[in-house]
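Input structure tokens:
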């Protein structure tokens, strides 16, 4: 039995508890990913309405994610995650009741998704900051890969489950299931006991602490350039997945069933990417991540290619590998190289400059496709996104960032300041190579 259970789950009970709760919650998220667009369409909404509802869930990131980062660095991050789960449970439960009773409108869904997004804005930086408090530094990549494995597995199981729930109980039934998973996650979080952490705040209120967090971002070229590339990916590429993909599916691929097949294929590829991230030893992980982001940025052109659903699904599986590799390696790099007392604030800037800006792309995707045509819009998205990812690969600090800090675990010095070395621009110290996580069996 031990041979098939990853060591980090056997040996780190707090991570195992976190992992169990988040695993079911991720499945609910994947069900919701499919159900929400069809919930909007089921109440008479248009493609623009799908974008509006999705944007409503993401817009609060612009308003609250920085505050969420400060709170997560100042207080216990798992308590913030617990409150977020309880609020999202209430939101999805309310949406489910309105849909099942036939009283839901697009306006209701917009308002509810705005509340959902507010809870998300506090959850995400807290989640990033929590992991180093339940996992030792040498196992962060392993833990992130396992979390990614569950998220990717949810992309395979979630659409299939969502298709069945939507067919049997409508989108409302699917969202009721999501509400139940949030309640379960909250139960696991209530029993979590992470270790204490070093507080690395400037004091004096939210603004000084935000300035201190921003100093951690701007002093590292690989961090701010990575955030810029991800902003392009979230604003330009992901609207193809959230808005235009379901629209094409509704028109040409047989509705939810066709879209679920594409999403599930992406999930299979993402699982392969997580296995690669778990097993492969990468001396320069951010260089691999940047190359993977360029592949991931091809998603819009693939969805709009006009190929068969089977061909599109197969190509989306390839991009799934790339997406998983990028996000596992990016999260691990932040958790490794950013001081833990500032990590949630840095993560909040990450969310703000990537997912927080996505509502702009979502709001424009529908009108742009109405004016230019869906396929022309999708090809234009790829033409903008791929060069941005390739530009990230050209940044020396990105290509040279080592996988590990020196063996003494000291925080890396600020980058790009006068008289200071750029972290990752020097060769990786010999001790770092010996400190790598051993390759092992992926998955459970």
């Amino acid at each position: 039995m031990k041979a098939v259970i990853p060591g980090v789950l056997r040996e780190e009970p707090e991570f195992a508890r976190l992992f169990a709760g988040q695993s079911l919650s991720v499945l609910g998220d994947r069900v919701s990913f499919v159900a929400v667009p069809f919930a909007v369409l089921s109440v008479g909404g248009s493609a623009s309405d799908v974008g509006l509802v999705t944007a409503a869930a993401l817009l609060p990131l612009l308003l609250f994610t920085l505050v969420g980062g400060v709170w997560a660095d100042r207080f216990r991050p798992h308590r913030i995650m617990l409150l977020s789960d309880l609020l999202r449970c209430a939101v999805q439960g309310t949406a489910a009741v309105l849909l099942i009773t036939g009283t839901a409108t697009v306006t209701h869904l917009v308002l509810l998704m705005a509340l959902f997004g507010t809870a998300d804005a506090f959850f995400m930086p807290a989640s990033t900051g929590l992991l180093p408090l339940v996992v030792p530094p040498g196992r962060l990549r392993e833990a992130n890969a396992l979390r990614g494995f569950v998220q990717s597995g949810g992309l395979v199981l979630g659409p299939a489950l969502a298709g069945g729930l939507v067919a049997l109980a409508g989108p409302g039934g699917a969202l009721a299931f999501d509400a139940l998973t949030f309640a379960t996650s909250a139960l696991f979080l209530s029993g979590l006991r992470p270790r204490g952490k070093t507080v690395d705040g400037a004091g004096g209120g939210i603004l000084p602490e935000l300035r201190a967090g921003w100093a951690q971002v701007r002093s590292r070229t690989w961090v701010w350039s990575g955030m810029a590339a991800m902003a392009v990916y979230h604003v330009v590429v992901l609207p193809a997945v959230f808005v235009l993909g379901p629209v094409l599916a509704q028109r040409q691929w047989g509705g939810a069933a066709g879209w679920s097949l594409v999403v599930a294929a992406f999930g299979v590829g993402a699982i392969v990417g997580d296995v690669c991230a778990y097993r492969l030893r990468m001396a320069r992980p951010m260089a691999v991540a940047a190359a993977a982001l360029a592949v991931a940025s091809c998603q819009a052109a693939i969805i709009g290619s006009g190929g068969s659903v089977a061909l599109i699904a197969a190509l989306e599986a390839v991009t799934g590998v790339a997406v998983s590799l990028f996000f596992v390696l990016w999260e691990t790099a932040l958790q490794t190289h950013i001081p833990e007392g500032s990590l949630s604030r840095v993560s909040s800037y990450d969310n703000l400059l990537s997912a927080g800006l996505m509502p702009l792309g979502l709001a424009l995707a529908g009108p742009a496709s109405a004016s230019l045509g869906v396929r022309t819009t999708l090809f234009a998205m790829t033409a903008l996104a791929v060069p941005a990812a390739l530009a990230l690969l050209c940044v020396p600090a990105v290509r040279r960032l080592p996988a590990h800090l020196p063996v003494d675990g000291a925080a890396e010095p600020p980058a790009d300041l006068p008289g200071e070395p750029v972290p990752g621009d020097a060769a990786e110290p010999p001790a770092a190579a010996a400190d790598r996580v051993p390759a092992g069996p992926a998955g459970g």
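Confidence is low (pLDDT under 50) at residues 407-444. The chain has one domain: 8-193+206-405+418-423.
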